[in-house]
Design goal:
Layout: H1 3-22, H2 44-50, H3 55-62, H4 71-80, H5 85-95, H6 111-118, E1 125-128, E2 134-137, H7 139-144, H8 157-163, H9 165-170, H10 174-191, H11 196-208, H12 210-216, E3 227-233, E4 237-246, E5 255-261
Antiparallel strand pairs: 1-2, 1-5, 3-4, 4-5
Length: about 260
């Protein structure tokens, strides 16, 4: 890890903690609110006290200083801030620590098996990597995702969603879905923050998409969930699918996405 990337990680961690602290109501912890608070949410000293931490230590953490972090302290902090599993994972990734509640390392697997499985699925299906590049897809997916998986297009899903006008026409309720995508992508970002390719991807999206730049600085984090996905297809009209996302046990960094339905 370079000095610059380590500093960037600490700065991201501080910004993430500040944004999460601001979202918590003091009333949830039996603390007084009111106009006397200069900022929304909990104060730094309140978070520190609730987590059994030093106020100075927590302040330095939010400031992005180079301080020693323990997995135990991070776990207490995640509990105080009411982190979801996705947010907790992101916290430990940014801190460069292994979560004692997390799963063990995955073993490598041959992607060819995953790509071959795509052809056995009748519904639209594709596999993406941590940068959200499509590694493979079936014919049904190419037919659905016009402008991304058809023709000679850029295969990065984030480039498609945020940089191509076709995505706004294809994806119904684009604004809400796009914000959700950013919150989901932060998990992969936290896992691969030090990689030049990840840094370049985010830098381009921030530079070329004002929407992405604004939402990215909100530091929202959520796990990738299934559910209803609606499209306005240029040839087939309105299509409704239920999305299912699978993480292969031997390659949890990859996502095998299936869209069931199509009515």
């Amino acid at each position: 890890m370079t000095l610059e990337s380590d500093q960037a990680r600490r700065q991201q961690l501080g910004a993430f903690l500040r944004s999460q602290r601001a979202r918590l109501s003091p009333a949830l912890f039996g603390l007084p609110g009111g106009a006397r608070r200069r900022t929304p949410g909990l104060r730094r000293e309140e978070v520190a006290q609730l987590g059994g931490l030093s106020t100075t230590w927590y302040t330095w953490l939010e400031q992005g200083r180079d301080i020693s972090l323990s997995a135990h302290a991070l776990g207490r902090l995640a509990g105080v801030l009411k982190f979801s599993p996705a947010e907790r994972s992101y916290l430990f990734d940014l801190a460069g620590k292994r979560d004692p509640q997390g799963a063990g390392d995955a073993e490598p697997a041959a992607p060819a098996a995953l790509l071959a499985a795509l052809e056995t699925v009748a519904a639209p299906a594709y596999v993406i990597d941590p940068l959200w590049n499509a590694l493979g897809w079936n014919k049904a997916a190419a037919d659905l995702f016009t402008g991304w998986l058809d023709g000679d297009n850029d295969r990065n899903l984030l480039h498609f969603i945020f940089l191509k006008p076709e995505a706004r026409l294809l994806i119904e309720d684009w604004d809400a879905r796009a914000r959700r995508v950013i919150a989901e992508f932060r998990i992969d970002y936290g896992h691969h923050l030090d990689e030049p390719a990840m840094q370049a991807l985010v830098a381009r999206l921030v530079r070329e998409s004002p929407f992405f730049a604004e939402a990215w600085h909100g530091h929202s984090v959520t796990g990738r969930e299934g559910g209803l996905r609606r499209f306005n297809h240029p040839r087939r009209g309105r299509l409704d699918y239920q999305q299912v996302t699978l993480n292969p046990t031997t390659r949890p960094d990859l996502k095998f996405v299936i869209l069931v339905g199509g009515r």
